[in-house]
Amino acid sequence: MRRSLTVVVLAYLLLGSDGARRPLLSEEDDTALDMLYKSYAKTFKDKYGVIFDCVDMYKQPALDHPLLKNHKLQVLPSSSTAGAPVPFGLQESCPDGTVPVRRYVKRDKAYTQISGQHFAQLLIESEEGSQFQEASATIEVDTLIISAGQVSSAQILLVNEGISGRLIVIQAGWAADDHNTTGCRNMDCPGFVLLSQTKTPGMVLPTGTASVSISKDTQTGNWFVFLDQEIVGYFPKEIINNMSGATNVQMGGITYAPPGQGSPPMGTGVAPMLGKKNLASQFVQIVVKGAKIAKYWVDKDVSNPDIYNIVMTSASSTGPQGVSFQYGGPGGTYH
């Protein structure tokens, strides 16, 4: 099963406390995206058969968003924490001035799913009055076999719990699925601005590790996504309600299964054990910046540790793996 880089333009927006959901891709979006792919500088397939189109950077899907009508493209962050790029990305690169956009297909359309979703995560809460401006970790990218319609992912989420119960979430990581989606992800609807010529949402990641970072640009208010120290692109402030920062950060595994199915495996499919390291998947070198930590804890919504579990392996930033945890499990039927 392919593991692909995933960014969520606006994972979900809950109004009040009723968890109201709305469709995130309309028939009008279908038409706009169909028009997009009639004009591109180059098209190519990766070794997995995924099609990418090299689109003019200034005519990419993000800029079709109505809130970005007057947006000025930010080519580089005001101050970058990224180091030298590492030799990883698509096998082909796009010409100068263009960016690779994974070919959209109409079966990618989906709606935010809540029922059937499970998680095992590290939760980090900021002190009142302060907000996180950056979150990063090195994430294990695992090979999984899952059934049609299921999703298993490893994500970093920055959450702003604003006034009046308004919740804004931006997130990045990897997901294994059967080419369907459980939200408005990647480039399936306008919003995420691409900058890299070789790294793009929807690209297949090799098994191993991926360093993922999301950080706010202090001058512009845009939120940049880095993969292995190279800029992928950014969430413009306009589409995330000028999000000032994150009141909490969540990291770990999230799965989804359609009604009537057991939950899919998470991570490597091995559940971690308290006090003993095993072959469970892990997040290491976890860093959050911009706020004081009020508290942190591991949490999951499945009580049976044989299905999913999560265990802190280090709470110290000075160890060889920094702050780290193991998570995951084989999945199964949960009642």
In short:
Helices cover about 5% and strands about 35% of the residues.
General description of the model:
This protein has 335 residues and is mostly beta strands. The protein has a single domain, classed as Jelly Rolls. The protein is built from 1 helix and 18 strands. Strands 10-13-12-11-7-15-18-17 form an 8-stranded antiparallel beta sheet, with no helix packed on it. Strands 1, 2, 6, 8, 9, 14 and 16 form a 7-stranded antiparallel beta sheet that branches. A hairpin with a 5-residue loop joins β8 (151-161) and β9. The protein is globular. It starts with a strand and ends in a 7-residue tail after the last strand. Mean pLDDT is 79; it is low at 9-38, 82-87, 106-113 and 178-183. This is Neprosin PEP catalytic domain-containing protein. Pfam families: Neprosin (PF03080), Neprosin_AP (PF14365). InterPro entries: Glutamic_endopeptidase, Neprosin, Neprosin_propep. It comes from Eragrostis curvula (weeping love grass). Residues 1-19 form the signal peptide.
